[in-house]
């Protein structure tokens, strides 16, 4: 048997082996996991970044709340501004947030009983410090909070002239 029939016999076993190899899927899951692992790690790091950003925004909101409340407990607008700044610094340190630049703006509206004190806190945070992942850049968080001045509290002007 020479000719095309003997050639078919020789190529047929090789074709069968190649077909078996092509259909064999052993190890494919490990190869796919190896290729997808860096992508999954990046996705996890992105989720961590988003969580830390949300947590920092909540902490800045709390700092503005504390600063506004501290400002309403003072008697003069200059004391209110100083109290808001000091409270914001202390609250940020307590929360573990380091601002590259911090701005605390206080609107006292004369600090009269029944008025409202509004404090705006603006804090620029480096993302490398925030996420502990070395992400470049920074993000500015800003939050405002208004707190009413107690209607029934005494004021230094009313007490200076005797009973109200």
TrEMBL record:
Regions crossing the membrane: 29-50
Keywords, alphabetical: Membrane, Transmembrane, Transmembrane helix
UniProt entry tagged with the keyword Transmembrane helix: yes
Lineage top rank: taxon: Bacteria
InterPro entries: TadE-like_dom
Residue stretches making up the TadE-like domain: 27-69
Identification of the protein by name: TadE/TadG family type IV pilus assembly protein
Organism: Amycolatopsis nalaikhensis
């Amino acid at each position: 048997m020479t000719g095309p029939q003997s050639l078919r016999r020789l190529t047929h076993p090789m074709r069968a082996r190649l077909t078996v190899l092509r259909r064999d899927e052993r190890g494919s899951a490990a190869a796919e996991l190896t290729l997808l692992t860096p992508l999954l790690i990046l996705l996890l790091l992105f989720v961590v970044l988003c969580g830390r950003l949300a947590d920092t925004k909540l902490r800045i909101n709390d700092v503005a709340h504390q600063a506004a409340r501290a400002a309403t407990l003072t008697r003069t607008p200059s004391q209110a501004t100083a109290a808001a700044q000091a409270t914001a610094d202390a609250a940020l340190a307590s929360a573990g947030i380091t601002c590259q630049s911090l701005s605390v703006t206080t609107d006292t509206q004369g600090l009269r009983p029944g008025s409202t004190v509004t404090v705006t806190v603006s804090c620029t945070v480096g993302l490398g410090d925030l996420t502990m992942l070395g992400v470049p850049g920074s993000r500015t968080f800003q939050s405002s909070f208004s707190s009413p001045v107690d209607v029934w509290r005494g004021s230094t002007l009313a007490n200076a002239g005797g009973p109200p």
